[in-house]
Amino acid sequence: MDGALLVSCPCDLAEWRKHMQSIKGGAIWERPVRSLSPLALVDHVPASAKIWLLVGSDDQIAPSALTLAYAEALKNRNVAVNVTIAPGLGHNILLEPVAIERLKEVASAIDAGR
Q1: d(Cα 94, Cα 99) in Å, to the nearest integer?
Q2: Measured between alpha carbons, how far is residue 40 from residues 13, 14, 32, 93 in Å?
Q3: Local confidence pLDDT in tens for the 114 residues of the chain
Q4: pTM over 0.85
């Protein structure tokens, strides 16, 4: 992997499920899942990778704190990480101009070998 763009990432699955339990309720958030948590897999991200993270400042589903915790874990492994917290945006931002711009940035950087 050379790089990745994660948008509205519930980057710490255990904390995200606790968060969802607190805002949505229901037993579903207590059931086991086989999903992989980016934070749990941070040691498998190559130090040469470049990671871009994008989250809305008003994201109530995957709060920016989850993104920031993942970014910190990546930085602690000397992985290049670029975090954008998009002001005034919520969770569904994949087609927002800022997401398209970040995707172009990722593609350009990877293509240029940066």
Answers
A1: 6
A2: 8, 9, 16, 25
A3: 788 999 999 999 999 999 999 999 999 999 999 999 999 999 999 999 999 999 999 999 999 999 999 999 999 999 999 999 999 999 999 999 999 999 999 999 888 776
A4: yes
